[in-house]
Design goal:
The longest helix has about 30 residues, at about 90-120. This protein is globular. A hairpin with a 6-residue loop joins β3 (about 55-60) and β4 (about 65). Strands 2-1-3-4 form a 4-stranded mixed sheet, covered by helices on one side. The protein has 2 domains: about 5-80, Glutaredoxin (3-Layer(aba) Sandwich), CATH 3.40.30.10; about 90-205, Glutathione S-transferase Yfyf (Class Pi), Chain A, domain 2, CATH 1.20.1050. It is of the alpha+beta class. The model has no long low-confidence stretch (mean pLDDT about 95). The protein has helices spanning about 15-25, 45-50, 70-80, 90-120, 130-150, 165-175, 185-195, 200-205; strands at about 5, 30, 55-60, 65. α1 (about 15-25) packs across α6 (about 165-175), α4 packs antiparallel against α5 and α4 runs parallel beside α6 (about 165-175). The structure holds glutathione. Glutathione binds near residues 12 and 35. Glutathione binds near residues 13, 14, 56, 69 and 70.
Length: about 220
């Protein structure tokens, strides 16, 4: 079996998405702790792999280093995924890709910096509560869309677990775990409970972010 090498600390949300996919696909891997307190992402060697100095970076045994977690997820899906996780047929694949892209831009983008960083990675006395409330309202409107979808489907893109669930679901552990006011989304809550039954989700996503806390 090929060995995938991952550079990136386990508590990075983008690394978690990639690791969860690797776990779901049953791939052999080795992961190096890089970034945040671990450092190692400003060395010439690392920057030669990823000039952005960000994690994750992934290299397959026979490939070049890849960065951008969405591109990495598509690579893994193309190479190792099977239908229904990543169907061969273009229309079915594009449907999943649409939801995956939507989740990356709107849910991960609307949560990580505007909410998670402001709540968890900012000392209490410096927190901008008005900005957090506005970001929560904005995220809530996007979650309403997922709520409607999940009322009628077990998973984000339909009745099967797909790449779109990785992009959407990897954010939900932190969303449900941190101290914020959450609007009621019963379908998303039961979806999250179902994700929490998946071993790869528990192993790679439902892990401590204590190390990221400030104050
Ligand atoms: N768009 C990039 C963002 C990568 C990114 O910003 N990664 C963060 C961690 S989630 C990072 O490298 N932060 C610096 C660090 O950990 O030292 C992706 O999706 O991979």
């Amino acid at each position: 079996m090929t060995m995938i090498t991952v550079w990136g600390r386990a508590n990075s949300s983008n690394v978690q998405a990639v690791m969860w996919a690797i776990g779901e696909l049953g791939l052999a891997y080795e992961r190096h702790d890089v970034g945040h307190r671990h450092g190692g992402n400003d060395t010439a060697e690392f920057l030669a792999m990823n000039p952005n100095g960000t994690v994750p970076v992934v290299r397959d045994a026979d490939g070049e280093p890849l960065w951008e977690s969405a591109a990495i997820l598509r690579y893994l899906a193309w190479r190792y995924g099977e239908p229904p996780f990543w169907p061969a047929e273009l229309a079915a694949r594009s449907h999943i890709d649409k939801w995956a892209e939507w989740a990356k831009l709107n849910i991960a983008g609307g949560f990580t910096a505007p909410i998670f960083w402001r709540v968890v990675r900012t000392p209490a006395k410096e927190r901008d509560e008005a900005a957090i409330a506005a970001a929560l309202a904005s995220l809530g409107r996007k979650l309403d869309i997922a709520e409607v979808q999940l009322r009628n489907h077990a998973f984000l893109a339909g009745h099967d677990f797909t790449l779109a669930d990785i992009q959407f679901g990897h954010i939900l552990h932190r969303y449900f775990d941190i101290e914020i006011e959450r609007p009621s989304h019963p379908a998303i809550e039961s979806y999250y409970d179902r994700l929490a039954e998946r071993p790869a989700y528990r192993e790679h996503v439902m892990i401590s972010y204590e190390d990221l806390k400030v104050g």
